Amino acid sequence: MKTQLSPDRDLSAQIAEAIRDAIVSGQLIVDARLPSEAELSDTFGVSRPTVREALKRLAAQSLIRTRRGATGGAYVNRLSYDEAYGQQITTSTLLLSMNEVDFHTACEARFAMERACVALSAQRRSADHLAAMRAEVHRQSQPGLSDESFCASDVAFHRALVDGAGNPVLSYQLAGAVEAMQPLMNMITYSARPREQIIHLHTTLTDALENGDAAQAETLLTELEQITQMLGETTLQARAKAKG
Amino acid sequence: MKTQLSPDRDLSAQIAEAIRDAIVSGQLIVDARLPSEAELSDTFGVSRPTVREALKRLAAQSLIRTRRGATGGAYVNRLSYDEAYGQQITTSTLLLSMNEVDFHTACEARFAMERACVALSAQRRSADHLAAMRAEVHRQSQPGLSDESFCASDVAFHRALVDGAGNPVLSYQLAGAVEAMQPLMNMITYSARPREQIIHLHTTLTDALENGDAAQAETLLTELEQITQMLGETTLQARAKAKG
DNA sequence: ATACAATTAATTGTCTGACAATTAAAATCG
DNA sequence: CGATTTTAATTGTCAGACAATTAATTGTAT
pLDDT at residue B244 above 70? Predict the structure, then answer.
């Protein structure tokens, strides 16, 4: 662990960086215990508050966890898929909202990525995945469902589709991306007619995966994208009209 | 901003959460200035070090930036694509290394996602993208190139391919994913024969994009994946042999 | 000897108060 | 009016203290 600090940059940031490097490079392995705050103060030649600020930076990225008490201290955290999702989602969500990504771009990206794993899903999806998808389709066809709930169910449907590919890396990347786009997708108002269309496409898509027909599944996803794009456009136009 | 803190959880974590919520929900907009540390201490009823730990947590996620001086303070940060990349890459890299994702899975995910945008690239790639790709192919054919450099150039090539899709969301998601897999891809040793094959596929792939032939581009990517998978397997077998 | 209780030590969490460094604005002076 | 100095506000860092928590150790009674 590098202990040479330059005095002109934030000390806590440099210390956090040094420890992060040690973790990423494998010098500090999972569940390894870091020196106590007092020891770190000594080795880096800074005060304990400064060390603590550094440790909080790392804790914010789920790189370490801390525990009080006799055998307490800071331990290198095994980054779980769930934690990683969470961070990716907040990051992506902020990125999309702050940089004013338009609906069209977000939608295009989402469906492009989904098409990426539909071929694998057609080969590997389990009965559980198909059941989960059909369950969501059923929920979507319930009368009186709010737009938000319909949208949430839509996400769950696509999540099952993605998980069907049986590749955790793909699931991780896509789930993060799809969830991050939720705020944008949530702007849509789903009236009765498009809901019918979407539900029909979802049903057919599930059938296609059951039959291992990847090509048809891709075509159906493209159709879904077109409907979604149209709905988004309509919604935006309606808003612009209400505004002006 | 919620100021009600429960005494049994980390105060700095709760404060960070409260401010983060205010940012994500839009109560605090980009470039808004947070109250000074002294003011935050008062409103939350905690000491300044505690407030500072909370702010460092947010800074670690690039949610705020701080500046010293008269008009200094903590400001809500506009998350840039670069910062978001950086965070996604460290998170994904750690996730892959700590959870022992195998080469096959990582490789499959990478190429699946690349196929996701090749269709768009075939439509939209500019002359600049094609030029960048050809430049990397040229570098790859230089004699005496180290495996690591070859690999880095490979990433640059695929990065140009992805950017060619002209969708910043797609670029962001994919660039992060591809870079995170670098440590795994770097294990490969590229001997002369596979290099030739790869370079040939890269050239043909560039041509396909230039001609707008999406179908052929996808096929070529699949061939590239097969070669990469084979190389990975060979490398791993060689390592296992050397070990045992 | 064993089960249970009290003590102890190590460690993080928090507070107080102080001073240094930095920065922009305000005041001063030529 | 322009350049320089002063001032005020703010973050960065430090030192020392005490509270809270936790596990190990010690002590004690059965």
Answer: no
Is the CB of B49 less than 7 A from some atom of nucleic acid strand D? yes
CB contact under 8 A, A24 and B90: yes
% of chain A with per-residue pLDDT over 90: 64
Q: How far apart are the first and last CA of chain B?
A: 60
Name the CATH code of domain A82-243 (choices 1.20.120.530, 3.40.190.10, 1.20.140.10, 3.40.50.1400).
1.20.120.530
Closest residue to B109, CB basis, from A81, A101, A173:
A173
Tally Cβ neighbours within 10 Å of residue B154.
24
Q: Which residue has the higher pLDDT, B74 or B117?
A: B74
Q: Residue B107's closest CA among B184, B219, B169?
A: B184
pLDDT tens sequence across B90-146? 888 888 888 878 889 989 999 999 998 899 999 999 999 999 999 999 999 999 999
CATH 1.10.10.10 is held by the domain B11-76: yes
Nearest chain B residue (CA) to A118: B112
Most B CBs within 10 Å: which of A14, A117, A169, as the mutation test of the B interface? A169
Measure Cα distances from B224 to B197, B203, B231 in Å.
9, 12, 11
